[in-house]
Amino acid sequence: MSQSPLTPAPQPRRRRRTLSLVSKREAARISRLLRAEVVGGVIVMIAALIGFIAANSPLADGYFALRDTKIGPEALGLHLSLGHWSSDGLLAIFFFMVGLELKREFVSGALSKFSTAIVPVAAAFGGVAIPALLFVAFTAGTPAVHGWAIPTATDIAFAVAVLGLIAPRIPPALRMFLLTLAVVDDLIAITIIAVFYTENIQLLPLALALIPLALYAFIARRFAAPLARSTFGPWLILLPLGIVVWSLFLASGIHATIAGVVLAFLIPVNGRQGTQLAETFEHRFRPLSTGIAVPIFAFFAAGVAVGGASRFPLDPIALGIMVGLVIGKPIGITLVTWLLTKFTRAELDSAIAWRELIGVGALAGVGFTVSLLVTELSFSDQADADTARLAVMAGSVIAVAVSAAFLVRRPKARPKASPAPPAPAA
């Protein structure tokens, strides 16, 4: 039957454009953050390289003695080795910055709108699930399966730094995708650590932590503007409260880095006063995180003797981690993104090619900071831990090479010059 002239024509199905920047202000903030992550990533690379070289040189004995040196008051249960301080203490600063960025993304960033959040959030879960399943496939039936979360993390500083080196002209929307993906990945990793790597919780210290937490939240919200303008206020008021919360979390059995995330989530990030305070923390604490905390952790965590107790590279632990990082990450991220664009109204930004998306998925396999932290939480056996550390570093390097194969563009061939016309006859 022919359609009546009065019958409205059917409207085409409207699709939602994803992986695009939210606003100019958001784009400017992301650009500043990316520049900071590039610098931080380079510093961490250098620190990790120095630690690895020191552990495999004549300085090895001095290096390991330094890492095992214990400092801190015994009466408070804080007589820890320098390596322990770097993972439980200094990394709390790193997780504070992660928590602050997470809250800003959920309140006013890419994760605040369903249309911009659905693809990177779902892709992040795919990039966690597939590597975890691959690791379990290699280690099933052995105690090593406890390390299933090691290949699930993405090191945002490393990944962004490498992206800036191998693909400086990549579309901004794809940079945003990588950053949002890594932020969600961090949230998943934080949840995994809190739920699956916490044992023997002591309720009394955890209950006592609620007192300084409540005071911290009240001061941060009630006096946001004065604290943002003050030079010493955040250091003299909020920082001591944060240290008390951290120490009580450590005593409770919950990994102390979770305290950094909880404290960050109590900082207001919306409204004029909240934004000013969040930016103050961003300005003052990010240099501590990228320039001191994470590099020191990397220096100690990367110190693995190649000829030591490790069973790298053919042990199931090593194979599970490397396959998870190098193959599992890009498959999980790309497959979930393709499924969403195929069966929902989501679609990629027109500036993004699937080849580039696969490259970014491969780059997400650069797992370092959080992967090494989960390694420490997973294995008490030195051989297992050293095997896992070497696998994390090797897998991350291979992931960079795979990513470069997809992202590095060959220069276009220049057209051959036309032959000069013959000179006119005399």
From TrEMBL:
It catalyses: Na(+)(in) + 2 H(+)(out) = Na(+)(out) + 2 H(+)(in). This is Na(+)/H(+) antiporter NhaA. Its main location: membrane. The chain crosses the membrane at residues 33-55, 114-139, 145-166, 178-197, 203-220, 254-271, 292-311, 317-340, 352-375, 387-408. PANTHER family: NA(+)_H(+) ANTIPORTER NHAA (PTHR30341:SF0), SODIUM ION/PROTON ANTIPORTER NHAA-RELATED (PTHR30341). It comes from Leucobacter luti. One of its GO terms (cellular component) is plasma membrane. The lineage of its organism: Bacteria, Bacillati, Actinomycetota, Actinomycetes, Micrococcales. Belongs to the NhaA Na(+)/H(+) (TC 2.A.33) antiporter family. InterPro entries: Na/H_antiporter_dom_sf (IPR023171), NhaA (IPR004670).
